[in-house]
């Protein structure tokens, strides 16, 4: 019973991670400017990777590899939003104008 619940939770976490990564991909392809793309890439990709890595850590159990998976998860949570901020700031300082709906 507990093992079935554990496997179901692992599958749910990995499927959720794949879903949010897919949403991030669609957002990067469809959104109009670098600011919106950086926003969607940082948020949904971080959530997707976080859910997938949580599923992997749960699947590994209490082993040394689980510690590395959790450290990778922390690294992604720190670096992904920071990188998106740096990209958006570089675009702003380079003079890239945000997309506006009323402009052609």
From TrEMBL:
Presence of keyword Transcription regulation: no
Superkingdom of origin: Archaea
GO molecular function, one term: sodium:proton antiporter activity
Keywords: Membrane, Transmembrane, Transmembrane helix
InterPro entries registered for this protein in UniProt: PhaG_MnhG_YufB
Membrane-spanning residues: 7-29, 49-78
Pfam families referenced in this protein's UniProt entry, alphabetically: PhaG_MnhG_YufB (PF03334)
Keyword Transmembrane recorded: yes
PANTHER family assigned: ANTIPORTER SUBUNIT MNHG2-RELATED (PTHR34703:SF1)
Entry protein name: Monovalent cation/H+ antiporter subunit G
Organism: Halalkalicoccus jeotgali (strain DSM 18796 / CECT 7217 / JCM 14584 / KCTC 4019 / B3)
